[in-house]
Amino acid sequence: METVSKKDFSHKFFSKELYFQNLKRSRVVGIGFLIAILVLNSLWVIGTAWSSPQYYTKAYFITGGNIAPIYFTIFVLGIAVAYDTFSFQFKRKTSDFFHTLPQTRLCVFLTFTLSIFTWILLTLVATFLSCALIWSA
Length: 137
Hints:
Blueprint: H1 16-25, H2 27-51, H3 54-57, H4 68-85, H5 92-99, H6 105-136
């Protein structure tokens, strides 16, 4: 019976090198949306606080209708980063390159999907921190 070495399964599900390479590839879209959502969110929070002074004196609960634009922007972010991440499928030269990598297709898909989730998570955390900083000021 033939044994399978550990090296054969090293890139079966996730590749750290491919993950960081894809984060670098999609940084323009990710950072652009991160800046855009931080500016939009900061303007919304500051506008809400200035329009009604009662927000300083009592607890303010955020409902779904108040943050719907932020949800929509994050939804658009996910689509834009996914399109940018998987855009290599639309060009013959880059498609051939990515399909010659030693990683399996499952590994490429899961690694790229995880990098998309990383950009979305970074945007959500940055939005939360900016809101916390603005509301605490």
